[in-house]
Design a protein that fits this description.
heterodimer; A: 288 residues; mainly alpha; ABC transporter involved in vitamin B12 uptake, BtuC; B: 247 residues; alpha/beta; Rossmann fold; six-stranded mixed β-sheet; three-stranded antiparallel β-sheet; 9 helices
Chain lengths: 288, 247
């Protein structure tokens, strides 16, 4: 048992680093994912994750695989797209989902093109799927800072954020906090995606954000419990995924998301809140 | 009587079409005013103007020193996400925003207030129920409980009794009477004239322009109502520009 579960982390530093990285990601991205899901913006997370790519790629174009340049580029691109998508949806007839779909496909194409101009296929793989097993000190620090910052900001904006999800009209009538809170929340989304981008790449960055949140939805009826379950799911997926990757030949990033995916499939089937089994199995209705 | 809300030649609308046209008048402090009129008469538009959601095309609304937070507003189609995982207690407790704000604690005193408000709308025992499980009437009771906690001097209710059964409407109208007794100013858009006649001393009949404003018996006459309906039907997609301002 020890050999399977503990020894890999004791023996290999790169696995320990990966572990710290995914745990921090789970802590930061889980709660953000729950709010994204509750605001019906799950796919927006996906779109923004792709939107980061061209920014990070431009950073790469100028500075190579430089953490600072790629992070700055990713953050800027993420913010720009988040704001643009909101603007386009407000200012034109197109629905937000359609405009985002257009956005993320274009971003992905632009990003891949830019990376290919300068880099090798290895670089491209790094961009698309991350390199969770090669996190250096700086990157770990960045991910940890983002996770801590997210938790603090979420605590600060908790009330208006919940209110904005349930009853935005009411929030507008009692306070002007709505717009700044929305922007702060989008900032958290982008930051967490940039953090996750370094570890999991642009294609899987949303994985630790949305899949655990979706799992939480199947087991809890209130926001706090949902977040606890989402973070727990993220942590469990991180540990198990790394072990799975170590013992088999599955690449680490996909392994983490795969484990989360298995938990999700289980939740769809057996979830206490609206799972399939609960709906399909005959149960006697109550007296009142 | 000192005024709480004053309209000065107020015009409100959408995409240049006026929905409330050149309205003058004032609502005195502590008034209990029913705003009636056909669909499309501008009732909701007027309320949106008062609470500041819509900016007037022309003229103005003077709230006589009221701040946004002193106004409690129940919109006709509240944008509430009923599937959001939140329970009745927390939903009602939102009404404490003015006192609690971003970080203010919810202590013993506040919890008593929330429980009293839940009890006042007859939902004791429902505190832990998610709002997704409530019926339309129960949801309206929740929203009234929240209004109670808001402790506002001006309360604006846009068609609060639509699609609500008689018992619920009767319970909720008691709360409106209570607000009136507490000298709060209450405005309500309504369609049920019997309800208006029995409960509202003052009535504004609106058909984009004010048709009549005064005591219920004087306003709700067949002639006035017919006139209001005719005025509302006369909507012109190709209307020219209104010249009143220039005159």
């Amino acid at each position: 048992m020890y050999d399977i579960l503990i020894a890999p982390f004791v023996d290999y530093e790169f696995l320990r680093r990966a572990l710290v990285g995914v745990l921090a990601l789970a802590l930061g991205a889980g709660p953000v994912g729950v709010f994204l899901m509750l605001r019906r913006m799950s796919l927006m997370g996906d779109a923004m994750a792709h939107a980061i790519l061209p920014g990070a790629a431009i950073g790469f174009l100028f500075a190579g695989l430089n953490l600072f340049a790629m992070t700055a580029g990713g953050l800027i691109a993420g913010f720009v797209v988040a704001l643009l998508a909101g603007l386009v949806a407000r200012a034109t007839e197109i629905k937000e989902d359609a405009s985002l779909a257009a956005f993320f496909l274009i971003s992905l194409a632009v990003g891949v093109t830019i990376v290919s101009m300068r880099g090798t296929n290895i670089d491209l793989l790094h961009f698309l799927f991350g390199s969770v097993l090669a996190l250096d000190d700086q990157t770990l620090l960045l991910i940890a800072v983002i996770a801590s910052f997210s938790l603090v900001v979420l605590a600060v904006i908790w009330r208006p954020l919940v209110l904005e999800c349930v009853d935005p009209g009411f929030l507008r009538s009692v306070s002007r906090a709505g717009a700044p809170v929305h922007v702060a929340f989008l900032a958290l989304v982008v930051m967490n995606l940039v953090g996750a981008f370094h570890a999991l790449g642009t294609l899987l960055a949303v994985g630790l954000m949305m899949v655990p949140a979706a799992v939480g939805r199947f087991w809890a009826r209130d926001v706090t419990a949902m977040i606890v379950i989402a973070v727990g799911t993220g942590i469990f997926s991180g540990i198990t995924g790394l072990l799975l990757s170590y013992h088999t030949a599955v690449p680490a990033g996909p392994a983490v998301i795969l484990v989360a995916g298995v938990l999700y499939a289980g939740s769809v089937l057996f979830g206490r809140v609206g799972g399939l089994a609960q709906r399909l199995l005959p149960t006697r209705h109550l007296e009142a | 009587m000192n005024a709480q809300v004053q309209f000065r030649d107020l015009t409100l609308g959408y995409e240049r079409h006026p929905a409330v046209h050149h309205l003058d008048g004032s609502i005195s402090r502590g008034a209990l005013l029913a705003v009636v009129g056909p669909n499309g008469a501008g009732k909701s538009t007027l309320f949106k103007g008062i609470v500041g959601v819509l900016t007037p095309f022309a003229g103005g609304i003077d709230l006589c020193g009221l701040r946004t937070r002193d106004i409690a507003y129940l919109p006709q189609a509240a944008e509430i996400d009923r599937s959001f995982p939140i329970n009745v207690y927390d939903m009602v407790a939102m009404g404490l925003w003015r006192q609690a704000g971003l970080f203010g604690g919810i202590g013993r005193k506040e919890r008593d207030k929330v429980e009293a408000a839940v009890a006042a709308v007859g939902l004791t025992g429902f505190e832990e129920r998610p709002i997704a499980s409530l019926s339309g009437g129960q949801m309206q009771r929740v929203l009234f409980a929240r209004l109670l906690l808001q402790d506002a001097s001006l309360i604006v209710l846009d068609e609060p009794f639509n699609a609500i059964d008689a018992k619920t409407a009767a319970d909720l109208i008691e709360l409106v009477r209570r607000w009136h007794a507490e000298k709060r100013t209450v405005l309500a858009a309504l369609h049920d004239f019997d309800l208006v006649r029995t409960n509202f001393p003052e009535v504004l009949l609106l058909a984009r322009e004010p048709v009549a404003w005064g005591k219920a018996a004087d306003v709700l006459t067949p002639e006035n109502l017919l006139k209001a309906r005719r005025m509302c039907e006369a909507f012109d997609d190709h209307a020219g520009e209104c010249r009143v301002d220039a005159a």
